[in-house]
Each structure stands twice: as structure tokens, then as C-alpha cells.
Amino acid sequence: MKLKNYEVHLPNYSIGDQIYDKIGPVCESYGKKVLVIGGNKALDAAYEKIESYVKKTNLVIIGKVLYGENCTYASVEKLRSMPLYQEADMVFGVGGGKALDTVKCLCIPDDKPVFAFPTIASNCSACTSVSIMYNDDGTFLKPHFFVRPVMHSFIDTEIIAKAPVRYLWAGIGDTYAKYYEAMISSRDEQLEHFTALGVAVSRMCRDPLLTYAPQALKDHKKGLCTYDVEQVVLAIVVTTGIASIFLTKDFTPDYNSGLAHAIFYAMTSYPVIEERHLHGEVVGFGVLLALLVDQQPDEFEKIYQLNKAVGLPTSLEEIEITRQQWTECSSRIPDMSDVAHYPYRVTKEMLTDAMDRLIERGKKDNEKS
Fold this sequence. Notes:
- With 369 residues, the protein is an alpha/beta fold.
- It contains 16 helices and 8 strands.
- It has a 6-stranded parallel β-sheet. The chain has a two-stranded antiparallel ribbon with strand order 6-7.
- Strand 4, helix 5 and strand 5 form a beta-alpha-beta unit.
- The protein starts with 12 loop residues before the first strand and ends with a helix.
- 51% of the residues are buried.
């Protein structure tokens, strides 16, 4: 079978506590006029530092604007209609996933150079070629895929170290999920080269977290950017982004998601999840159930212990979901798109059994304490 022609654009990135000194060498060849777009808190955290480094270059910032509240097509079109955007030679996107996804959806289809300045390490938006789009009411809409990621991502570890620790914490759960979901969804298949690369790379979404995550969170709480913090940031922002690019093509099955994400999306029907909990937090909980469904007791125990060590949830109570709500979710999950490409049919009975075993595991912990 002849494979469809395809192209792969991998992310370029710089990382360090003074990495903005690379802005001139990286960006000057794309023009002169810069429009900065970001979130409110993100701009408070990073704009002055970005501005101070831009002043050392031939670039000039012509404006600073907020991206909106969610990554919606309406927000994108509002920004596209701005005269400042039309005048700019390039855009600097500053913030977390929703801000960076908004500027990607704005600039990449227009072929306008866009650069990422992540201020938190909760996801891989700064390095991947997809935007997660939302409806105007804040509910999930769909992923929007692009041919390439941003031109370059400037990962300032000093700024990330000063961000709220809960974002790095949640990012840990979303990152190790990539490994397990890629491994399970690709099992026993003859994989194309790019998919096989993505699955191989995904292992680095788990291994550094098992080694460095507990100490990284302790250091991050002190506002320190140590070696452990940097290794976790690289896993969350860079490795996951590279794996996602290889695992997602519009002409192949979806190897980029799985049961843990299906569990998260099913639970978003309850407002408490969006209002009080983070994506990676709930996905990390979902991985525990996915590993029990997949009959991987040793890997389950590794992640159970990691979640305990870093404070990620191991029970429904920690994410404020009742057993009745879980029963409702378990009826919807088998028909969700995230498990459409799986090596077996996920059933409600599997999910019920997995939850029973997770509850029993928690009881053993309580008995010990």
C-alpha cells in the first residue's frame, strides 16, 4: 500500500533562565514589527522581561493585547480584524495553553510568523501543531490541526519557576498519560515510521517524571528552577509536543489519545471539573483506571505511587465526583472518540471493575495509615 504524501515539522525551542537573549538572533530575520498577544496574568509575569530583551534587538513592539478568555474561533477572528495584527510582521504568544493555541490558530493559517513564550508548564501547546478549540460557552469543541508548530518556543525557566505550582503538578499527569495512551492504542499494529517514532518518543513522557517529578515539585514550590524542574518542564512542554506531532496525522488512526482522556472529557459534563480541577489532574487519575482496564498491575502501581508522592488524585473524592456520577460516565465512555481506536472494545463492565479495584487499593492505604 502506498502511503499518502506527508510532511513533518518539528518544534524549535530554547530553554534557560536568560533564554530571551536569543530573541534577536532567532526572530530578526522575519521582520521588525512585533505584536505581543497573551493572557492577563501571563503578560504581567513575562512582558517586562520580553520587552527588555527586545530593546536590545532591531525589533520593535507595536502593541500588547489580551487573547480573550478561551481559545475560540470568535476570539481568533476578533484578533485577526485588528489593524495592529495586520501591521505586525510577527506575533509573540505569551501564556498557557489557551493563549498559545489562540495565537497558533490566528497566525499559522495566515502564514504569519508566530513565536511562543510559555509562562507555565502544564501542557505542550508551545511545541505542538494543534490548537484545542472551545465553544463560546467554554465547552470543548474540537482539535484544530496545522501543518507546523510555532517558529520557535522560548522556554524561560525563571518565569515558569515563579508560576503557580499547580500548573506543573497537573502537567505531570497529562504528560505520563501520553506514554500509556500511545503504547496501548498502537499495540500489535504495523506502524508507519512517524507513528513508531512517536510511540518511541512517548516513553520519555513517563520516565523522567518517575525520576524527577517529586523533587521538582518541592523545588518549584520554593520558586527554584533546579535540574529536576528543568527535566520535568522539558518532558511536559517539549517531549509531549514532539510525540503528539508524530502520533497525529489526518490520514491515520488517532494514537494521540486514549481511555484516560475519554474519562476526563466524560467528567467535564459535571461543572465541578472545569471549575475546580485541571485537565492534567483528572487525566492523571484516568491513567490509573486505564492501566487497570488494560491489566497492567505493575505499571498501575508505579503511577499510583507517583500520584501519591506528588499529590495527584487516586480517588473519586479528590476530584469531587460521586460514585453515581462515575456510573453515568462509564455508560458514555465506551462510545467516545478517544477510545475509537483501541486494541479492544472498552466496556462499562471493564470500567466498573477497574473502579472497584482502585477503591480497594485505596482502602489498603487507609488501613496502613
